[in-house]
Amino acid sequence: MSTAPCKNLETFPNPQPNRDYLIHIEIPEFTSLCPLTGQPDFATLLLDYIPDQKNVELKALKLYMWSYRQEGAFHEAITNKILDDLVAATSPRFIRLKAKWWVRGGIYTTVVAEYRKEGWTPVKPVELPEFESNDPTRG
Fold it and tell me: Which residues are noted in the entry as substrate-binding (predicted)?
């Protein structure tokens, strides 16, 4: 596997394809360029997905994200492009990408894009009671 920026999103077989489970990935150092000024844009990306037959390989994901450092694109376009590429590579049951862009000109931008596989419906979550913490300070 390369250690240079790359648009190739490698995958591996889902070890539990018969079960819905959530994968949560945080990418706190995403960078791209403003298409108008050429200045860097910074974001924290929050990726949540329920795989079907394939999972994304994390080093490949890192190199993919790194490949945007020299690309200019609007926040909305880049968020949707990343989501589309992840869907094309993994065909997940569900995926949501939340891009929290750092302040630019006094404005914060958050873009959320998601995809749901046709015919897939999520299992209703089990509601469990919450218990007090076992923290000895109880504070």
Answer: 56-58, 75-76
pTM of the shown model: 0.87
Evaluate whether 116 touches 96 at the Cβ level (below 8 Å). Answer: no
Residue 73 domain flag = yes
Asked if residue 137 has pLDDT above 70, the reply is: no
**Would residue 6 show up in a list of annotated catalytic residues for this protein?**
no
Kindly name the residue from 6, 20, 34, 52 that is annotated as catalytic: 34
Q: Is residue 60 part of a domain?
A: yes
Q: What is the pLDDT of residue 138?
A: 53
Give the residue numbers of the binding site for substrate.
Answer: 56-58, 75-76
Determine the Cα–Cα distance for residues 56 and 2; give it in Å rounded to an integer.
Answer: 16
Q: Which domain holds residue 41?
A: 20-116
| Domain count for the chain | 1
